[in-house]
Amino acid sequence: MSEKLIAPSILAADFANLQRDVEMINHSDADWFHIDIMDGVFVPNISFGMPVLRDIVKHATKTIDVHLMIVDPDRYIQTFADLGSDILTVHYEACTHLHRTLQAIKSAGMKAGVALNPHTNVQLLEDVIQDIDMVCIMSVNPGFGGQSFIENTYAKVSALKEMITRKNASTLIEIDGGVTNKNAKKLVDAGADVLVAGSYVFKSSNPITTVKDLKSLVN
Ligand code: DX5
Ligand code: ZN
Q1: 131 is known to lie in a ligand binding site
Q2: Total domains present in the chain
Q3: Reported pTM
Q4: Residue 210 CA: which ligand is closest?
Q5: Mutation test of ligand 1: which of 116, 144, 153, 202 has the most ligand atoms closer than 8 Å to its C-beta?
Q6: The domain that contains 209 carries what CATH number?
Q7: Ligand 1 center to residue 48 CA distance, Å?
Q8: Per residue in 21-64, pLDDT tens?
Q9: Structural domain span for residue 89
Q10: Is 45 exposed, middle or buried (0-12, 13-18, 19+ CB in 10 A)?
Q11: Most Cβ neighbours (<10 Å): which of 10, 39, 80, 151?
């Protein structure tokens, strides 16, 4: 079985000490940086935008996993590629022509991800699953860190894993929202490959140890 990955969400970092927190993740057992971009329209919150991402990328030494919670993401695909994103995830609910968007992300040199809100059924991806590098299953309603994990997520992960296997696709499954040591193992057992963790990592007394423990719990 391939290694399970941990992606700390920068949304929970201390923005007044961003370089310090980015370097802390560089020196941890984490695999990716998860970067939440919110526009205040697709979700009822505004996080940060391009200048902040540029400065994160300047210091980060790991994969940059960008989660766009914005309407009309097609407008910004090239910008996020130029800023150094390795994976660009758009929301299913924000894309009228999802297939075209996925092609555009890949043409810009990035891996293409699709995020699903808690109410969006995984079966809606059946016809495009082979074109998707990663599906991000939202285990909270997008917009805020620190929310409680939605239990129905396990069933969604199992259903998606079954589809990926049946379609012989190589799509990764990422889980985003409310991930802790209480649900991590069960998520991986259901088929998850990447666990995003914001508050659980950054609000802990020792984020380095928290990442290390989470990583060893699922590998
Ligand atoms: C929610 C974001 C998540 C969030 C996760 O809209 O997409 O990535 O930062 O934070 P926690 O782990 O605190 O739920
Ligand atoms: Zn996210």
Answers
A1: no
A2: 1
A3: 0.99
A4: 1
A5: 144
A6: 3.20.20.70
A7: 14
A8: 999 999 999 999 999 999 999 999 999 999 999 999 999 999 99
A9: 5-218
A10: middle
A11: 10
